[in-house]
Design a protein that fits this description.
With 232 residues, the protein is an alpha+beta fold. Helices cover 23% and strands 41% of the residues. The chain folds into 2 domains: 92 residues, Dockerin domain (Type 1 dockerin domain); 129 residues, Immunoglobulin-like (Sandwich), CATH 2.60.40. Strands 1, 2, 3, 4, 5, 6, 7, 8 and 9 form a 9-stranded mixed β-sheet that branches. Bound molecules: calcium ion (CA) (2 copies).
Length: 232
Amino acid sequence: MAQAAFGSWWTRSALAALVGCLFLALAGHATAGTSSLSGDANCDGRVNSIDAALILQFDVGLLSSLRCQDNAETNRDGRINAVDALRVLQVVAGFMDTLEPPLVTVGSLPLMVGQQGFVDVGVRNIIRPGLCCWAIDLRYDPDVLSVVECQARFTGMGAVVCDPDFEADAVRVSGATPVGLLGDLVLATIAFRCTAAGTSPLTLDVGVLADATVGNPQAIDAEVRNGTITCT
Ligand SMILES: [Ca+2]
Ligand SMILES: [Ca+2]
């Protein structure tokens, strides 16, 4: 009798300890820090199935908040739900390369008047099926800068153009390839010369950014990070 009672106590205690450990693991309290990593719902610096479980628990109301709630919103649709959890699991399983948002970027430079410098126009975090087609205008202040040269940097199968004289204040970088380009890519390198003192914004105007879906390219919803060139 006493042995049975002890066994029952031990079983309940073990279960309670196990549930406690699972809760701590799922909540990520033991290792939580800060992170802006998309998908990292518990801020432990990793994106894994624990994050997917946390997002699902939040979605069904078992958790009222997440430690890094902004990270849990992975597809920028304004909701944290099973779609976000699925995207996390796709990364875990290797079906997606990253949950970080696609970006179109251009660099920034300080230059002396009369001096020449280079900035790259590129894309980051491109996932499968990859980048197929792009047409991106880089606008600048022609009272401060002149374009010396514009060189397309893509050398694979397809066609690319970098037009330094597209408009009086804009360079156009465009290209197309049947092979989906993945990851981080430099699309063009542009040489500017400072012609007067001042600061010129480098503003990206993304006209086309489409993926390599066979027969039906889809627009890639990318964030834009502009740059500046300061001439002194
Ligand atoms: Ca995590
Ligand atoms: Ca979402």
